Structures are given as structure tokens and as C-alpha cells.
Amino acid sequence: MKRRSFIQKTSVGLGSLLVFPTLSKTVFPNNPVADELPKFKVCRLTHSPKHHFFGYYGMSPWNQSETKMVCLESEFQDRLPNPGETANIGLVNQKNGAFTPLEKTAAWNLQQGSLIHWNPLKPDSEIIYNDQKNDELVSVKLNVNSGNKSLLPRPISAVATTGKHALSLTYGRLGRLRKVVGYANSVDPYANEAHPQKDGVFLIDLETNETKLIVSIAEVFEKSVTEYPELAKRHMWFNHTVINPSGTRFLFLARTRNEKNNLDSAMFTANMDGSDLAQVIPFGSGVSHFGWRNDNEVIATFYKKGETDMKHYLFPDKTFDYKAVGVGFIIGNGHCTFTADGRWMATDRKDSSSNSQSVWLYDMELDKGMILHAKPVNEKRYFSGDIRCDFHPRWNPSGNKICFDAVDNETGTRQMHLIEFINS
Questions:
Q1: Which residue from 2, 64, 138, 228 could staple onto 123, CB 3.0 to 4.6 Å apart?
Q2: Which are the contacts of 82, defined by CB distance < 8 A and separation ≥ 6?
Q3: pLDDT at 257 over 90
């Protein structure tokens, strides 16, 4: 199927206030198979006066049976959290958006929340989230029905769908080098080391609570510095671990800042024990966002060498065989994520010329896409910077709903929104 001509205009457009669900009309000029793309409705789920958000993408606020949704509730969104300030973790009523608090966390930020995951071993009743106890960062297993809790020795950054393992990063280093994804009151134990041997990606055994370093920052530095000698003068940190669907490999970004203080990153993949480490996107490419389509294919946004435009590229793991997705339709950067079957990709886009954000959908089988929803960001501080509110689309397990965070233009509060597909 040829691409380029498949764009949908939603009935809830730029400048409108999103309050109640609205059925969108699909318009595809000269497209004989327009009905193959789904119709949908969009609504704001949660309500002011407090702020409600899930945080990041690539994980789902829904439990496995989709009977429960989880999110954070905060008193503010106009600054980063200070040490000791907490957010509520709770459940959202999917019919009326009411929030029921369960616990508080002192390890949270506006960009990623507390990295809440539903525990795959108890996918309908237990969540895992980050917290601080006695000035130490930990993660918590919480049964949302009984309130029973247990602690894990390190904060999580990703949880394998097998439920056997989680990955962990040192959030003190993130807090020092990129505050937007760090936690208040966290400490970098190797602040004086540019490429520490004892820091990197850690593996947590969720059954025994044992932890071990599986990929060190020093290892990635030594693997990269010959080709990219600029790294010798820069402090490096790791960010954004994502595990493939079967829990056999993971990806992560190795990040630095260049002489202009701009991010300069590369992507690596590895087995869950840290072996078979491979660079899949080099430094200097501007790699930004990412996800697994399946166990062997990765999606990422970056600048391919020799090209001037950032694109969404799909490629097999451990290769540089990049293929642009949605050529002539998908524009620039976006938080890209797939349904479980790998057919549908959701992503988002920011347009700085209009201070607007939008959610996009792409059918990988039919090679077609549509714009699901667009809305203006009335205050620029929520469009970019450390307190920005990115849409961060994330799917429900069934693949017929998308949840995204956005500032509600009527109340000025950060709230969860839903896109629900009709007869999909």
C-alpha cells in the first residue's frame, strides 16, 4: 500500500477544549480502503483541582484485565519536586475519572512519574513503583486490594514481562546530570568519576531480591571511545532501559553532554545478563525515543548519517539496517510505542511553530496513518523544559485504547486523557 496520502483530521482540533468524548469523522481522499482504519473518540479522564498523570510511555497504567488504572496525583506541576515532597499513588475510576489514593511516594518526577509497573506475576492486583525509605531509593511491591507491601533493594527502571527480573539505574546520577528524570534528595555515589566501573545497569531478581551490575558505564565507554574520542572529556550516564517482550534482551541509552551542553547519546542492546552488548545507534545521531516492536525489532527516533531530518526508524536488533517508518507522513521526533501484536504504532509530535502537541497512529501492515488528536499548549513552560507535559502515549493490553497525559486548557491542570477506538 502506498503511503503519503493517509491523514485524518480529528473533529477535536487545535484550539478546542476537550471535555466530553467526541466521535471523529475519518476523511481519506481517494482512498478506497479508508474504512480499514479505525474510528475513535477522545476524552479527558481525570479532573482538577489536583494534577493526575501516569508519567512515561512503554508501560501501561491498566492492569491485565483492564479493570483498574493507576496513576499519580500531585499538588503542583509548576516546578520539580523538592526533597521530602510526595505524590499520591492511586487508582482511577474509568467511568468518572475519580481518584482513590493508595500510598505516597517520595521518588517521583513530572516526566516519568514513579515508573509504575503492574507486576507480571500478579498482573491484576500488584504494582511496583519507586520510593525513598530512610533516604535510600528503593522500589515497592504493593497489592492494590489488600494494601500489603514489600520492598526491593533498588529502584526499578524496567520490569520484564516474565516477572522474574527488573532493571535498575542510579537515579542520583540521573538527578545530577539530567534532573528531569531524577529524584529529589538522591545522591550520585560516583559524582567525581566520568565513566565509573561500579555504576551502570543493574539486574534485580524479583524472587530473591538479589542485585548485580550487568553493564557498567566504563564498559560502554571503552567500547565507544576509539570511534568517538570526545567521550573522554564527558561524564556519561545511562537512561531509559526497555526490555523486549519475551524478557531476553534490553535496550538503553548511554548519554553525555557536548560542549554546548546538548544531549549526545547512543543506543545499546544486551542480553539480560549483560552479555552480547551491541551498539545499535551511534553517538552523534541525536537518538531520542525508542521501543521494541517485537523480540527482534527496535523502533527509534534519530538522525541517520547523511540526512538532515529526524525520523522514526525500524531496524533488527544488533544491526544498522535502518528503515524509515511513515515516510511522507510521520514527521520528526516522537514517543513511539506498539500494540502487543506489533501492528499499530502510536507516537506523538510537538509543533513549536504553534506550541501544539498531537497523537499519531500508524498501521504497520497497511502502511497508513492518521492524526488522532491535537491540542495547543497554552503555557510554553509545559511545552518544553524540565516541567513539560509530554503526551507519552501508552496502550492498554487489548490494543484498543491509548492513554496520554496533557495539560487541560480549561483548568490548566495536568490530567490523563483517553483515546478509545470504536469496533477495532
A1: 64
A2: 184
A3: yes
Lowest-confidence segment of 35-44, 366-375, 404-413 by average pLDDT: 35-44
pTM metric for this prediction: 0.91
Position 1 pLDDT exceeds 60: no
pLDDT of 33: 42
Q: Provide CB contacts within 8 A for 65, sequence distance 6+.
A: 123, 124
CA distances from 346 to 101, 215, 234, 377 (A): 29, 30, 34, 20
Q: CA distances (Å), 397 to each of 64, 69, 128, 372, 393, in order? A: 6, 12, 17, 19, 13
| Each residue's pLDDT tens digit, 112-159 | 999 999 999 999 999 999 999 998 999 999 999 999 999 999 999 999
User: Could you give the 3-state DSSP secondary structure of residue 311?
Assistant: strand
Give the model's pLDDT for residue 35. Answer: 55
**3-state DSSP percent of the chain in helix, strand and coil, to 5:** 5, 40, 55
CB count, 10 Å around CB of 151?
12
Residue 92: strand pairing partners = 69, 99
User: Is 278 in a helix, a strand, or coil?
Assistant: strand
- Give the type of residue at 399: G
The CA-based angle 368-374-377, given to 5 degrees, is 145
* Cα 95 to Cα 376, 396, 413, distances in angstroms: 26, 16, 20
SS3 217: helix
pLDDT bucket at 423, cuts 50 / 70 / 90: confident
The three-class DSSP label of residue 404 is strand
Residues 97 and 87 sit within 8 Å (Cβ to Cβ): no
For 209-224, what is each residue's pLDDT tens digit?
A: 999 999 999 999 999 9
Distance CA 229, CA 249 (A): 28
Q: Answer whether the bond into residue 196 is a cis peptide, omega within 30°.
A: no
